[in-house]
Specification:
The chain is α/β, with parallel strands linked by helices. The protein is built from seven helices and eight strands, in the order E-H-H-H-E-H-E-H-E-E-H-E-H-E-E.
């Protein structure tokens, strides 16, 4: 366990390796409160779209400073739980500060790589990739880890940039189309439930565990 105070947020199961993750992921900030971003991506609206309910367990893969983790923690309430992790130690530290700011003690934050880190097994109602699946060195490995985290009835969510020029966001050549992302999810053992637009620049894919046979 990493050193630090255990107040409203815990930094646990810490693991960090710069070798596998692109440097850009470490340097790009994702503030929890970003009014400009909220104009084109409202976290409350997204969490409503995926049906996140009070009492559920939400895993935020690549959480940044808590743009989705903070409102998710508020939504699931004291009977729910949010596991949030990121490769950027500074972002995880700021998430802790934000959790304390809002008096949230149901966030469990870690430093870890999506391809190698599993905060819990068969625990999650939702595993959420927010704008980051295209950034990962091995997306399918990360998706297979998501399958380990999900309960049998859980749902996988991939929110990501449309694979076209949008004027903001990553270069189009870095992005995954809905078809490519869906194909990777299926290869990792999921069944696609729906694909829809989520604002002007993003799509949202909802999936569930596919049972063998």
């Amino acid at each position: 366990m990493c050193p630090g105070q255990r107040l409203h947020i815990r930094i646990e199961n810490c693991f960090f390796s710069q070798a596998i993750v692109p440097i850009a992921m470490h340097r790009r900030r994702h503030p929890a409160e970003d009014p400009e971003r909220k104009r084109w991506q409202d976290p409350e609206e997204i969490l409503g779209m995926i049906g996140l309910q009070e009492g559920e367990v939400f895993v935020d893969v690549g959480c940044g400073e808590g743009f989705f983790a903070i409102p998710a923690a508020k939504r699931v309430g004291p009977r729910g739980r949010v596991y949030a992790f990121d490769t950027n130690p500074e972002a995880v530290s700021r998430l802790g500060e934000n959790a304390r700011k809002y008096g949230l003690d149901n966030i469990f934050a870690s430093i870890g790589e999506a391809e190698r880190f599993v905060p819990c097994e068969a625990c999650a109602d939702v595993v959420f990739f927010g704008n980051d699946l295209h950034d990962l060195a091995d997306p399918i490995a990360a998706l297979r880890n998501a399958r380990i985290m999900l309960r049998a009835s859980g749902r996988l969510v991939d929110l990501d940039w449309k694979a076209v020029a949008t004027g903001i966001g990553p270069p189009p050549e870095m992005r995954f189309s809905e078809e490519k992302a869906s194909g990777m999810m299926e290869k990792a053992g999921f069944r696609i439930l729906s694909v829809r637009a989520a604002g002007p620049y993003h799509y949202l894919i909802l999936a569930e565990r596919a049972e063998p046979g």
